[in-house]
Write a structure and sequence with these properties.
The protein has eight helices and four strands; from the N terminus they run ααβαβαβααβαα. It is of the alpha/beta class. α2 crosses α3 and α4 packs parallel to α6.
Length: about 160
Protein backbone atom coordinates (compact mmCIF):
# COMPACT_ATOMS: atom_id res chain seq x y z
CA UNK A 1 0.00 0.00 0.00
CA UNK A 2 1.44 3.38 -0.92
CA UNK A 3 1.80 6.27 1.52
CA UNK A 4 -1.01 8.34 -0.01
CA UNK A 5 -3.63 5.61 0.28
CA UNK A 6 -2.50 4.91 3.84
CA UNK A 7 -2.89 8.53 4.89
CA UNK A 8 -6.17 9.00 2.98
CA UNK A 9 -7.70 6.12 4.91
CA UNK A 10 -6.23 6.92 8.31
CA UNK A 11 -9.06 7.26 10.81
CA UNK A 12 -7.75 9.10 13.85
CA UNK A 13 -8.88 12.33 15.38
CA UNK A 14 -5.22 13.08 16.17
CA UNK A 15 -4.16 12.94 12.52
CA UNK A 16 -5.64 16.30 11.34
CA UNK A 17 -4.18 18.04 14.39
CA UNK A 18 -0.82 16.39 13.77
CA UNK A 19 -0.84 17.62 10.14
CA UNK A 20 -1.41 21.18 11.35
CA UNK A 21 1.26 20.81 14.03
CA UNK A 22 3.92 19.55 11.61
CA UNK A 23 3.04 22.19 9.01
CA UNK A 24 3.74 24.81 11.69
CA UNK A 25 6.95 23.06 12.72
CA UNK A 26 8.07 23.01 9.09
CA UNK A 27 7.18 26.70 8.64
CA UNK A 28 9.47 27.46 11.58
CA UNK A 29 12.38 25.84 9.72
CA UNK A 30 12.48 22.40 11.32
CA UNK A 31 13.30 19.73 8.73
CA UNK A 32 14.33 16.61 10.64
CA UNK A 33 12.27 14.04 12.57
CA UNK A 34 13.64 11.05 14.48
CA UNK A 35 11.02 8.34 15.02
CA UNK A 36 10.97 5.48 17.47
CA UNK A 37 8.40 3.02 16.07
CA UNK A 38 5.15 2.19 17.82
CA UNK A 39 1.48 1.87 17.05
CA UNK A 40 0.11 4.81 19.04
CA UNK A 41 2.42 7.32 17.39
CA UNK A 42 1.28 6.38 13.86
CA UNK A 43 -0.78 9.59 13.36
CA UNK A 44 2.27 11.67 14.30
CA UNK A 45 4.63 9.73 12.02
CA UNK A 46 2.27 9.80 9.03
CA UNK A 47 1.67 13.52 9.50
CA UNK A 48 5.41 14.23 9.65
CA UNK A 49 5.94 12.28 6.43
CA UNK A 50 3.12 13.85 4.40
CA UNK A 51 4.15 17.37 5.41
CA UNK A 52 7.52 16.73 3.77
CA UNK A 53 9.76 16.51 6.81
CA UNK A 54 12.80 14.23 6.62
CA UNK A 55 11.78 11.24 8.77
CA UNK A 56 14.40 8.79 10.05
CA UNK A 57 13.44 5.66 12.01
CA UNK A 58 15.47 4.37 14.98
CA UNK A 59 14.64 1.12 16.74
CA UNK A 60 16.28 2.27 19.98
CA UNK A 61 14.87 5.42 21.58
CA UNK A 62 18.23 6.29 23.17
CA UNK A 63 19.88 6.24 19.74
CA UNK A 64 17.09 8.43 18.34
CA UNK A 65 17.55 10.90 21.19
CA UNK A 66 21.29 11.24 20.70
CA UNK A 67 20.93 11.38 16.91
CA UNK A 68 18.51 14.28 17.39
CA UNK A 69 20.92 15.98 19.77
CA UNK A 70 23.88 15.63 17.40
CA UNK A 71 21.93 16.72 14.33
CA UNK A 72 20.53 19.74 16.17
CA UNK A 73 24.01 20.73 17.37
CA UNK A 74 25.45 20.57 13.86
CA UNK A 75 22.56 22.24 12.01
CA UNK A 76 21.54 24.68 14.78
CA UNK A 77 17.93 23.59 14.17
CA UNK A 78 15.78 21.52 16.53
CA UNK A 79 14.92 17.94 15.65
CA UNK A 80 11.52 16.48 16.46
CA UNK A 81 11.57 13.20 18.40
CA UNK A 82 8.46 11.01 18.12
CA UNK A 83 7.78 7.98 20.28
CA UNK A 84 4.91 5.88 21.51
CA UNK A 85 3.70 5.82 25.10
CA UNK A 86 5.17 4.09 28.11
CA UNK A 87 8.86 3.78 28.77
CA UNK A 88 9.80 4.88 25.25
CA UNK A 89 9.57 8.48 26.43
CA UNK A 90 11.85 7.78 29.39
CA UNK A 91 14.60 6.59 27.06
CA UNK A 92 14.83 10.09 25.53
CA UNK A 93 15.70 11.62 28.90
CA UNK A 94 19.55 11.40 28.75
CA UNK A 95 19.62 13.19 25.38
CA UNK A 96 17.08 15.79 26.55
CA UNK A 97 19.19 16.53 29.63
CA UNK A 98 22.33 16.85 27.48
CA UNK A 99 20.46 19.12 25.05
CA UNK A 100 19.31 21.32 27.90
CA UNK A 101 22.83 21.68 29.33
CA UNK A 102 24.22 22.36 25.84
CA UNK A 103 21.57 24.93 24.94
CA UNK A 104 20.28 22.75 22.10
CA UNK A 105 16.51 22.91 21.50
CA UNK A 106 14.55 19.67 21.02
CA UNK A 107 10.91 18.94 20.33
CA UNK A 108 9.63 15.73 21.91
CA UNK A 109 6.29 14.29 20.83
CA UNK A 110 4.99 11.25 22.66
CA UNK A 111 1.74 9.47 21.91
CA UNK A 112 -0.34 8.38 24.87
CA UNK A 113 -3.29 6.15 25.55
CA UNK A 114 -6.63 7.94 25.82
CA UNK A 115 -7.35 9.00 29.43
CA UNK A 116 -10.10 6.41 29.81
CA UNK A 117 -7.64 3.58 29.04
CA UNK A 118 -4.99 4.57 31.58
CA UNK A 119 -4.41 3.13 35.06
CA UNK A 120 -5.88 -0.26 34.15
CA UNK A 121 -2.61 -2.20 34.19
CA UNK A 122 -2.21 -2.11 30.40
CA UNK A 123 1.30 -2.40 28.97
CA UNK A 124 3.19 0.57 27.57
CA UNK A 125 1.36 2.93 29.90
CA UNK A 126 2.80 5.45 32.34
CA UNK A 127 1.39 8.72 33.59
CA UNK A 128 3.12 10.86 30.98
CA UNK A 129 2.02 14.16 32.51
CA UNK A 130 3.47 13.20 35.89
CA UNK A 131 6.59 11.79 34.22
CA UNK A 132 7.20 14.97 32.23
CA UNK A 133 6.61 17.14 35.28
CA UNK A 134 9.10 15.14 37.35
CA UNK A 135 11.75 14.17 34.82
CA UNK A 136 11.64 16.91 32.19
CA UNK A 137 11.13 19.72 34.73
CA UNK A 138 12.83 22.77 33.36
CA UNK A 139 13.15 21.20 29.91
CA UNK A 140 9.50 21.07 28.85
CA UNK A 141 7.97 24.25 27.51
CA UNK A 142 4.68 22.90 26.20
CA UNK A 143 2.81 19.75 26.98
CA UNK A 144 0.17 19.19 24.34
CA UNK A 145 -2.74 16.94 25.09
CA UNK A 146 -3.53 16.31 21.43
CA UNK A 147 -6.47 13.98 21.86
CA UNK A 148 -8.19 16.29 24.33
CA UNK A 149 -7.60 19.27 22.07
CA UNK A 150 -8.90 17.35 19.05
CA UNK A 151 -12.05 16.33 20.89
CA UNK A 152 -12.66 19.88 22.04
CA UNK A 153 -12.16 21.25 18.51
CA UNK A 154 -14.14 18.34 17.03
CA UNK A 155 -11.41 17.36 14.58
Amino acid sequence: MDKKSTTDNYQSSAYPFAIRFFNEIKALGVTEVAVSPGSRNTPLVLAAEVTGLNVKVFLDERVAGFYALGHAKVTKSPVVLICTSGTALANYLPAVIEANHSGVPMIVCSADRPPELRQWGAGQTIDQVQFMDLMFDGFTIYLLRIMLICRKLRI
